[in-house]
Amino acid sequence: MKKIYELTAFEIKEKILNRELTSEEVVKAIFERIEETDGEIGSFVSLRKEKALEEARIVDEKIKNGEAVGALAGVPVSIKDNMVSIGEPSQSASKILEGYEGIYDATVVKKLKDADAIIIGKTNMDEFAMGSTTTTSVYEQTTKNPWDLERVPGGSSGGGATSVAANQCFISLGSDTGGSIRQPASFCGVVGLKPTYGRISRYGLMAFGSSLDQIGPFGKTVKDVALSLNVLAGTDDYDSTVEDVEVPNYLDFLTGDIKGMKIGVPKEYFIEGLNPGVKKVVDEALETFKSLGAEIIEISLPHTKYAAPTYYVLAPAEASSNLARFDGIRYGHRTKNAANIDELYTKSRSEGFGDEVKRRIMIGTYVLSAGFFDAYFKKAQKVRRLIKNDFEKAFEKVDIIFTPVTPGPAFRLDAKKTPVELYLEDIFTIPANLAGIPGISIPAGMTEGLPVGIQLLGKAFGEKDILKAGDAFEKAIKERV
Amino acid sequence: MARQWESVIGLEVHLQLKTGTKVWCGCSADYDNSPTNTHTCPICLGHPGALPKLNKKVVEYAVKGALALNCKINNISGFDRKNYFYPDTPKNYQITQFEKPYCEKGHLDVKLNSGREFTVGITRIQIEEDAGKSIHAGSESLINFNRASMPLLEIISEPDLRSSEEAYEYLNLLKSTIKYTGISDVSMELGSLRCDANISVMEKGSKVYGTRVEVKNLNSFKAVARAIDYEIGRQIEVIENGGSIDQETRLWDDEAQVTRIMRSKEDAMDYRYFAEPDLPKLVIKNEEIERIKELMPESKTAKLKRFIEDYELPEYDANILTDEIELADYFEKVVQITKNAKLSSNWIMTEVLRELKESGKTIEESKISSEDLGKIINLIQKDVISSKIAKELFTIKLNDSRDPEVIVKEEGMVQVVDLGEIEGIVNQVLSENPKMVEDFKNSDEGRKPRVLKGLIGQVMKLSKGKANPKIVTELMELKLK
């Protein structure tokens, strides 16, 4: 029989509702599992065991009394360290927020609580979500890929991906600015969804690139991710960029039937540098879709090659402004020895931010400066529009788009990659952020003993399409295994 | 021949809107006299993850301001970030309108006391947020964020002003126009109106404007006028001495009555403006503008016209009474009680305005309420007191909380109308002043009224002003025949 922690979120929820299990038992099992494994894996940066147990008991009590409970009743969930929760460490893995505790709950935290989910702790990440390895965290803790402890888990939501992959929780929330959910999901063999920009409130998510950031769930299955999206999606009084688009019950689309679905395969995504192992998994996945009755159509997204440079202008520009509030005046790290206000800023920020964050603040400040604004920022905005148009045109012909997630599988922790090499890790995931469309990474196979994911992209607010296709695919390959 | 100079002035006026709550959050904006940092929340303190959400009332007020200043309202506008580090700016960027403001191309028609008229163009008005307030106490610096994120309108005029007098009159008209809309207190003392001046000089007849200097720290309309005069003089002197004007920002030193350099163009800020990604475009539909138009209070021009037409007041009276909306309201309340517009107007223009001038009070602070004045005037109309006694009553009322009618009764100020009593006094005066009686009889028709007036005066004096002058006159004329 499967152990409690090996079950899916959906199964756990069912068992708790049937009273086969109590939430308290589940939470206890999860904390035992974390104690056993997290020394090696390093998913978590803070835990809330006592509060979680207390909340679990309240949910159990409600169920016992026949009271109505939320859609994630009693299910242990972890969240990324860049999501604010009241009275709890919320640090974005940065020294500049050393000791900072949230003074309010992020909307997603509130929604999880309202859905009776049990938040068990915060997960490790790249500082301020900048990176693709989870190695730029200030915490003296390296998060390791559960499949091979000498490899990176991906980033920046690496801790979230490993917490699900290592069965330390059932659902985890990450944030995705250029692939930070989908790439670690692919590296760790879990499902990771970046929803449409404006589908989930960003209120309480420490901003990196405001026009690109989106919160999304990791799960063990597509169904768990759909269940989570039901809880998280929808308008919010505190975030006016969330669009007022109806939230369907995403579980309703998981029928397994995708006969006649048109799947676009962009030729620009199948590049020279694609790892052969990855290519094999991706090719097999396409065959699977064909066997399910989907129609595969070759498409072109001609501006794809400009996506990474565009992203690395726009994201740092927004980041340089978003991170300006971390100045040592109102909260967080303040330098001990400053003679005047300029020194207070400079030293607090020099001491508080890590190298990658500083690099991007400098790039961002440069591309926004009066002399270079038109040449960089404005031009990047124009290219972003072209990339968006590419997708809109493609979606006139196809229902979803199929691509690899990353050029290769998880790389070694000691692989000395330059910043630019690391930036290229995101070339398949970035376009979705620039276009604001949803993307999902689904485990599709293995190479060199490491998981490999595939990416499905949907039209804006077309989460139902990629969840439907992803679920059908997942069922098909499970049957084959 | 001495060179002839012409000055060019443009004003930037900041208005704080009386919307009740702040621009991006629900914090109460009525923070006057509140303890420091009590009107704050994660949003206006710029806490990690917090996002702005536009207060709908700000848009309504902004539209009212735009309509009052005859501006063209843009249906679609946007917000931008203006990035700069300053301790009382919580996010270290100010959200403002840069690329496209919500309204443009307005004007105000100013009429000088001399009768000369001129038009000042309004380039644009933008919605933006205020900063907090720094307090420097010795070596300590403290910040009060109660004012942070208060809604402001920045009204930028065209460089259409040519003298300090014009600037002064423009500001006065702007103030009274805005006051009429009820969107702001427009008080320099309360800080709800602030003004910066851009000043340059050029040779008379030149088509090319000189280099402009921005003067800040102007804390009264008089200071604006003085700073302009000083700056014009300084600039002319510099140029005539062979120097040139640098583009710089200067501060007005009210004590020394001079401007001092604050920063030069070389160390001017690079604000790195870019579109605020956390807020959607600001859409103001025509129907909404029409709806707000309906809500607009009567404008000064409309009120002036109505006062002349409905109350049959001379233009001179109507002009003075409508100068300030509070005075106009006061007048209308008095008229409601007296049903006599001209008499009410006379009393306000002479007694009330003189009293305000002497006491330095505003009409809202006046000791004589509209009810009081209405009652006093009605006492005259009902022949209970004479105009002369009424003036005494007015003076008494300034330091007396009793009702005017009560004062008249208790102080025995009621007019004498008893024929017998008045006849007694008339007879006494006639017998005590035989010379005057003789004089009257010998005078020609031209002189007679003057002598009569003297005799009546004696009667009034003897009756301590209480005798009804009409009866006195009739009796006197009868007896002298």
Automatic annotation (TrEMBL), chain A:
It catalyses: L-glutamyl-tRNA(Gln) + L-glutamine + ATP + H2O = L-glutaminyl-tRNA(Gln) + L-glutamate + ADP + phosphate + H(+). It comes from the Bacteria. It is an enzyme of class 6 (ligase). PROSITE patterns: AMIDASES. The active site is at K80 (charge relay system), S156 (charge relay system), S180 (acyl-ester intermediate). Keywords: ATP-binding, Ligase, Nucleotide-binding, Protein biosynthesis. Pfam families: Amidase. InterPro entries: Amidase (IPR000120), Amidase_CS (IPR020556), Amidase_dom (IPR023631), AS_sf (IPR036928), GatA (IPR004412). Its EC number is 6.3.5.7. Allows the formation of correctly charged Gln-tRNA(Gln) through the transamidation of misacylated Glu-tRNA(Gln) in organisms which lack glutaminyl-tRNA synthetase. The reaction takes place in the presence of glutamine and ATP through an activated gamma-phospho-Glu-tRNA(Gln). Belongs to the amidase family. GatA subfamily. Heterotrimer of A, B and C subunits. PANTHER family: GLUTAMYL-TRNA(GLN) AMIDOTRANSFERASE SUBUNIT A, TRANSAMIDASE. This is Glutamyl-tRNA(Gln) amidotransferase subunit A.
UniProtKB/TrEMBL annotation, chain B:
It comes from the Bacteria. It catalyses: L-glutamyl-tRNA(Gln) + L-glutamine + ATP + H2O = L-glutaminyl-tRNA(Gln) + L-glutamate + ADP + phosphate + H(+); L-aspartyl-tRNA(Asn) + L-glutamine + ATP + H2O = L-asparaginyl-tRNA(Asn) + L-glutamate + ADP + phosphate + 2 H(+). It holds the Pfam family GatB_N. Residues 329-480 form the Asn/Gln amidotransferase domain. Keywords: ATP-binding, Ligase, Nucleotide-binding, Protein biosynthesis. Gene3D superfamilies: 1.10.10.410, GatB domain, N-terminal subdomain. Its EC number is 6.3.5.-. Allows the formation of correctly charged Asn-tRNA(Asn) or Gln-tRNA(Gln) through the transamidation of misacylated Asp-tRNA(Asn) or Glu-tRNA(Gln) in organisms which lack either or both of asparaginyl-tRNA or glutaminyl-tRNA synthetases. The reaction takes place in the presence of glutamine and ATP through an activated phospho-Asp-tRNA(Asn) or phospho-Glu-tRNA(Gln). Belongs to the GatB/GatE family. GatB subfamily. Heterotrimer of A, B and C subunits. This is Aspartyl/glutamyl-tRNA(Asn/Gln) amidotransferase subunit B. It comes from Candidatus Cetobacterium colombiensis.
